[in-house]
Design goal:
By secondary structure, this protein is an alpha/beta fold. Among the domains are: about 120 residues, Galactose-binding domain-like (Jelly Rolls, Sandwich), CATH 2.60.120.260; about 200 residues, SGNH hydrolase (Rossmann fold), CATH 3.40.50.1110. It has 17 helices and 26 strands. α10 crosses α17. The longest helix is centred in the C-terminal third of the chain and has 20 residues.
Amino acid sequence: MAGSPVTKLHRRLKTSWEESAYPTNRIDYSAITHLTLSHWLTNANGSIQTSDWDGSSCTSVVNAAHAAGVKVIMMLGGSDDSNFGTAANPTNVANLVVSIASKITACNLDGVDLDWETNINNTNFIALASALRIAHPGFIITAPVDPTVNPASLAASLATYCDHVSMMSYGNANTGGGWQSWYFSALSGDGTTHPDSVSKFVSSWIGAGVPASKLGIGLGFYAVGWTSPVTGALQSTAGTQIAFGEIPYGWPLSLGGGVLSCYYNQSGGKYAFDASPALNTEPSTPPAQPQISSTSGLTNSTCSSSPVSWVTFEDEASIGAKMNYANANSVGGVIIWLLQEGATDPNTGRNPLLDKVKLGLLQQGPAPDPQVASVNGTLQGGSTLVATGLSTSLGQVDIRWWNGTTTSFDAGVGDYGDYGLPSEYYIEASTNGSTWVSLQHVTSNTINAGQLATDFTGKGYTQVRLRVVSIVGSNAGQGLLTVNSAPNNIADSYLLMGDSITSNCWEAATNAFPTEQLGTQIHAAKSTRFPIVTMAGIPGLTSASPLATTPYSKPVIQQWLSNFPAVKFVGLSYGTNDANGGISAATYCSNMQSMVQYVIAAGKTPIIPTIVASPSSAVQSNAPAMNACLATLKQNYPAIISGPDLWSLFSGHSTSDGWFLDDLHPSLGTGCTALQNAWTNAMISAEYPQQ
């Protein structure tokens, strides 16, 4: 990280109803330094109106944030505050300062965010900040400002009295004569007819005297949608309309919909990440922004009443680019509007955009999910695995079971012998070991693992068990049951999909009672990390197999992703059987792209290694073109994490030196150990750089 930038992130909650999308007890407080509660409105006389945050709702959030070392401030104003100008005039400003202090004291807050957006009077704005600083020098005072306003006239002066002055550099949607369509929040690439970019604003603000350490870049966790005829950037805006000015990035359709659920990976839509210099720009640099375009228009009544031809937004890749820029320019941090709009699952607290901010600015990976119980034993009809000794103070937990003696992850897709594979089972909890409460009941099961995210807050549970009613076949097997505490969110969780190399090297290679290797090795290297990993290898699979609709009447990969909602990282290790079977590189790459789209649409992050350099002559001939195609795929979808380079690792090795079991498979000893270590090192480098 260049210099020593202080990360300043603000979570702004509109009203309490958005708790359903992102409960406050799911916030990863280790990802933020400041939490801004939105919002309170002014009265013309300088008093402050009652907000949904007054009372117990404020107290519960403040207590949790303070316990995590996070400061909490109130947002005053906003675009809907028509009284701010009068409340902050010379006649009423003293009363306003008193009113602000009263609210801060009542809610045990740490300061105020002055969000004056309507009928701004620069002189009075600066005077308000000055009066607050003089009257309450210990308050945190921040101010978000329209970045297009001359910074010398407002932002630079506010910086004298404010701890942070941030630019609301998001939500761009210029329309009208003379303008061209432009990205939601371009990093660079601004020009005469599309004059907005983060780098332009940052340069302008610092040049006007705003200290870089006090400057925050604005990130919008939402999207802007355009109607025809605009289908991309740098097009005439004549005849177009803004179909929506703010739709969340991550929300499922059940909560009103978001980019991922409404428009990403939909028929007729095309995703692209613009990392190339824009045409006719000043200067000629890339916007680093994603887009979804559709010539026919995407229609989703839940999300928009008009067909949408262009959606521009932030995703993991664009935020990663902005974090790199912030570090390189020693920018103080970022503000986020709105934090909960990045959430993809209220049950797990999944927020991939926040995770990317945390990784980029703080060099911190997912929130730790410490393992609090683990038990192994025999799996057969009527057997149970019971995890005991749980603390009664546990909140959200992740319960995982794994049958490590069944070769195939899903016997319904590829059956290679069943050993203790539960066909019907319960996940149950108890306060005393005698009375059990069902948390999950699964029937007709064919998968050799399971994961359940649930909340134990106030339940007093001290035990969890996997109770097997029946198994597939008659052969007993061995199983593992673990419980991990996830007090903020569940993000340190993996599903490693692949073929027989995956099933061999992550399962058979342990050669004893099943022990999960990737999470164990990462924990050994990074003692504060507790990755939750599920192996999902099935022998014989090609890249086309997870896209087949048998036996689930939908793509198999969709079913697997829905079975593991708490998973964040999804390994896609396919290609050996494609190469050995003479599948064309174009077909292989198309299949891999489809899987990447399914993973991202599910709010998860794909990981793709290169294909193992197996000694097979067909693999040696065909795989290089496939690996080259993977490199292009990673350029087109920069949210993909590059897994280990298994081609380079295994090149030159064979059965003669003990690295391979046969022409296709690494040996269960030397070869698989090398593969496991390569995966561990790749993930530590990508996701746990400073832990």
